[in-house]
Amino acid sequence: MKNIFKLFILLIAPFLLISCEDEDDNYDINYTLILGKWIPYEAQERRTNVYDWDYSCGDEYLMITDNTAGEYSLHFENCSIYNNNPFTYRMENGYLYILEAGSTQEYRRQILTLTATELVLTDPDDWRENYIKFRK
Description:
- The chain has 136 residues and is of the alpha+beta class.
- Helices cover 18% and strands 46% of the residues.
- The protein has an 8-stranded antiparallel β-barrel with strand order 1-3-4-5-6-7-8-9.
- The longest helix is centred in the N-terminal third of the chain and has 16 residues, at 2-17.
- The chain is globular and about 30 Å long.
- The N and C termini lie far apart (61 Å).
- Residues 19-27 have low confidence and may be disordered.
């Protein structure tokens, strides 16, 4: 009987020690974490150029107001600022899907990090390992 028990333990123990990574189970992102005003503070472009966010173009932010809506004010390319652009969004499978007001094309951003104080977004279709980091 002892030998059968030992054999059972030897066969079952490896399965008890194997676990899934957190990434595998982390697809249902908590909507309450993303709510609030996020301020960009760092960006990376072309894989190696990491830089602090340039605030010389004015007050910039990504505001998530509830579990379906938000707005942003960000600059790109020589202070071309997109001010107070409202949007609707949904989160699904680690992605933030954004539909700007008046637009018919939804675009997506992959959520690399989402904590109570940090949000890191990347565009998996265009940015090629680029990102923007935000903090509350």
